Amino acid sequence: MPSPYTIDNAVLSFKSQLEDAVSTGGLKAKEAAIRSSKLINAIHEAVKSSFIEHGIAPYRIAPPLGATVKELRLAGFIKQKDQDVCILPVGYTPKSETLVEGLLNEAVDYYGKDYTERTLVVNIRSQVSSLDKNFDTLFERTIAEAQNLHVRCPLLVMGEVYMIAVPEFDIEAMRSNQIDHSRRSPKVMKYIKSFSHINKRTPTAGNDHKYERVCLLIVDFRPNTPIIHHTTDSLKAAGLIPEDSTVDFSGLSWQGFTTDLLAIYDERFHNGTV
């Protein structure tokens, strides 16, 4: 079995692969590496490893640790889509069914609603440049992914890891095969406030667009060993949020992300009234 990835190892791997691509092929190579998912797969492995470290049997993880194939293609209200990391339910087996509502009416769902709803889903994304320019589009897409599954399966437990580079990588430098970072002040508060609004979902009316737990992974890629901001104090010390800010970043941190999701899942399906 491959060695487990810590989040620190994963972020370092992301940095190394990105910078190697830019150094050899410039901006086009960077874009190709991102499209191929080679960079973000390191974060996938960290998520899988964290679940294993917290007691999830490796056979319940799809795709398996060290693999990128065998993603679960789950059916929601609007579309069927491969999910980045899934924790398979215990005591349930896939039961194929034909959908009878929504945009997927008459489509075949291999897994069935019961199995889908008891699958713990984590999606993983990254944005390392053009953070302000692409924010609206990417945030809308993030909301849509949760809504798609929750409309059909309101009890489904869903997590999101969203990594941003702060400061972001400089696109113009990449065109010349150079690594540099933007001098512009990043709008970190915009990201924190926005993701806070879709965090800590409860399965009640109007909350389909939210996630049970979001991890906003704020990373400074400038040092040889990237810095991951885990706390409000760390963000203040780096000048990313005002000193007098009352925002609490702890609920968006990587610390506690896996345990929070597992606790919510356990409460919802084993200790609660479901």
Gist of the model:
By secondary structure, the protein is of the alpha+beta class. It has one domain (71-271).
Write the layout of secondary structure elements.
Blueprint: H1 7-35, H2 41-53, E1 61-62, E2 73-75, E3 80-82, E4 85-87, E5 97-98, E6 108-109, H3 113-117, E7 120-127, H4 135-152, E8 158-165, H5 171-175, H6 188-196, E9 213-220, E10 227-229, H7 232-237, H8 257-271
Helix pairs in contact: 1-2
How would you describe this protein?
The chain has one domain. The longest helix is centred in the N-terminal third of the chain and has 29 residues, at about 5-35. A six-stranded mixed sheet has the order 1-4-7-8-9-10, sandwiched between helices. The protein starts with 6 loop residues before the first helix and ends with a helix. The model has no long low-confidence stretch (mean pLDDT about 95). Strand 7 (about 120-125), helix 4 and strand 8 form a beta-alpha-beta unit. The chain is globular, with a radius of gyration of 19 Å. With about 270 residues, the protein is α+β, with helices and mostly antiparallel strands. It is built from eight helices and ten strands.
**Termini gap:** 35 Å
Beta-strand residue fraction = 15-25%
Spatial sequence of strands, sheet with the most strands:
1-4-7-8-9-10
Radius of gyration: 19 Å
Structural class: alpha+beta
Helix content: 25-40%
Helix count, DSSP H or I runs of 4 or more residues: 8
Number of domains: 1
- Weakly predicted, low-confidence segments: none
| Number of DSSP E strands | 10
Morphology: globular
Order of helices and strands: HHEEEEEEHEHEHHEEHH
The biggest sheet, with number of strands, parallel, antiparallel or mixed sense and barrel status, is:
6 strands, mixed
